[in-house]
Amino acid sequence: MKKYKLYISGILLSGLLTGSCTKLDEHVYDKVDAAGFLTRRDDVIRDFLRPFEHAYWSIQGNDVYAAGEDCTDEIGTYNRQGDWQDGGYYQRMHYHTWTITDNFTSGAWNNFYQGIVLATNSLTDMEGIKDPSKLNVTDAELTDFKAELHTLRAWFYLRAFDFYRNIEIVTDVKNSTKGNPQSTPQETFAYIESELKNAINGLPTRSQLGAAGIGRWTKAGSAALLARLYLNAKVYIGQEKYTECAAVCQDIINGKYGAYQLDTRWDAPFDYTNTTLNSEVIYGFPGSLARTHWQYDAGMYFWGMTYDAAPLYCGFTDFGQSNPRYALQPGRDVDSLEYTFQLGKPFVKFQKYQDDLRLKKYKNLGNSQREGMFLYGYLPYTHSVNGVTRTDTVKGNKGPYPLFIRDQVGMFLGAKPGTKIADKESDMNHADHNSGVFLVKYPIYPTPDPNRITSAYAEIRLSEIYYTLAECRYRAGDKAGAAGLLNQVRKRNFPDGSSSLYEPGGSQLSDQELLDEWCREFIGENRRRTDLIRWGVFSTGTWWDKKPDGDKHTEIFPIGRDIMNVNPQLKQNPGY
C-alpha cells in the first residue's frame, strides 16, 4: 500500500464558498471527462484528495459548529455587552427558535452537499479509469481510492441525515441536471449503511497506510461510522439497533479492522502527537500552522477564549487576538448557588470528581506540554517595561479592570471574586466578559514552540467506540459491563489509585450519569445535540435559560429558504 500524506489546503475552497454546489441544473460539472484531465499519477492523487479539503473545512464552516453546540446544554454564545448580539442569531440557536432565514439553515446544507458533490465527482472519475497502469496507479490503490470516497461521502450523508433527516440522495452529478426529491429516513439509513458496509473490504487498515495515513479513511473509520448510525437508529428510523451497534464496536476494539489502543494521557488525542500510529485517533484531519488548521479557526476553538488569552496568557501571537464566541454554559447563578436543573452545568459536572486532571486551569508547561482543559479565574502574564519584568493579568475590551472568569453569567464587570453584585439577571442577553468558563481542548502552545497548531482534528476516537459500547451494554441492563468500559477510558483522567472511577458493578450509573459522562469526555466535539436527542431530552429538557420546547420538531433543523428556492422538489421539514 502506497503512503500519501494528506495535506489539507484552504486555497481551493474559495470556489466553494462563493456558491452552492447543490444547484445541479447549472451544468457546472457537465461534459467533464476523466480521460481529458487524468493523464498521469499526480492527477489521480489530486482528484482523489480534493473532497478531503472541503471535508476538513466543513467541520466548522457555515456555522455548523455553532449551530450544533449552541443549541445544546453545554456551550453558549452570549451577548457580551453588545458583542455577539448579532441580531439574536445565537440566541435563537440557544432557545430553539431558529427560522428558515437563519444563515446556518442553508449554510449547513451547502456545507454537506458540496462535500457530497465533490466526493461523487471524484468517485465517478475513479470509476472511469479502465486501465490504472497507464496512469502509474495499481489496481489495489484504485480500489482503495474508490472505497475511501464512498466512505467520505457516507460521512457527509450521515451528518446531513442527523441535521435535517429528510434529505436527497445524490449519486451522480456529471450526467444530471437537476436535484432529486427527498428520500425517506428509512431509505437514507439503508443507503448509508450499504455504502459503509460495501466500502470496508476495499479500505486499508491504519498500519497499511503507515504514519502518513492521517486523514485517510480506513476499515475502522468506516466501521465507526456504522456504529454512529446504529447507535442513533431509534431516532433516525424508529428501530433499535443497539445489538448491531455493540457488535461493530466490539469488532473495532478487538482489532478486526486494525490495531488501535487508548491513549494513556487525557490530552494526547488532541495533542500534536495524535497523528502517530500509537494514537487512539481512528480518523482525523491533519493540521499545521503553515497549511490548514480549521479547528483552530474562528469557527471553532480559537474563538473559545477571551480576547488576549492567546497572545498574553498562552504566549501564542501568530493569530493575534481571540474573540469570546464560545464559552461553557454556567452551573451557578450570580450568587454562586448551583442551579437545580439536572441538564447542563458542564463545569459543575466535571467538579463532581474533584481530582479530575482536566479541571486544572489551562497552562503551558514548556516543551510542547500543557496541563488543564479550562480557562477560569485570573489569567496572569509577565511583560517587560523599560527592562523591568512585571506581572499583569488579562483584561477585557469593555473596561480597564482585570477579568475574573467564572462559571456564572451576568454583569460582574470589575467586581472581585466573592463579591455579591446587585444585578441578579443571568441570561443569553445579559453577560459581560467575565462570564463563562472557556474550553481549551486543543493546546495553544506559545509562538516559539515548533509544535504549535499542529494537532490533527480528531473526528473519530477509539474512546467514542468504548463509550458507544458502554451505552449499548447499559441499555441491555449490563451496568457492570458499561462501567468497566467507561473506566478503561476514564482512568487516565485521574491520578493513580483515584476513588473517582466507577464501582465495578456500575452502581453509580444512571441515565443522567451516562449522559453527563458523554459530556465530560466529548465536550465541545459537536456531538452533544445528537446525544441529547437520543436520550429524549433535547426538546423536553430544561437547562440554563432554556425551557422545554413546545414539541419535538426542533430535533431536526429546517431546510433553509435559499435551498428550498433552488430545488422545487424539496419539502420543508415538519414544524417549519
Overall SS class: mainly alpha
Give the C-level CATH assignment of the largest domain: Mainly Alpha
The CATH architecture assignment of the largest domain turns out to be Alpha Horseshoe
Question: What is the average per-residue confidence, as pLDDT, rounded to a whole number?
Answer: 93
Please write the string of helix (H) and strand (E) elements: HHHHEHHHHHHHHEHEHEEEEEEEHHHHH
Q: Counting H and I runs of at least 4 residues, what is the number of helices? A: 19
Helix content: 25-40%
Widest β-sheet, arrangement of strands: 1-3
Task: Give the DSSP E fraction (strand runs of 2 or more residues).
Answer: 5-15%
Q: What's the number of structural domains?
A: 3
Query: Measured on Cα atoms, how large is the radius of gyration?
Result: 24 Å
- Major β-sheet profile: 2 strands, antiparallel
- Tell me, briefly, the overall form: globular
Distance separating the two termini: 49 Å
Count every beta strand, where a strand is a DSSP E run of 2 or more residues: 10
Which runs of at least 5 residues are low in confidence (pLDDT < 50)? 1-32
Could you say what the CATH topology of the largest domain is called? Serine Threonine Protein Phosphatase 5, Tetratricopeptide repeat
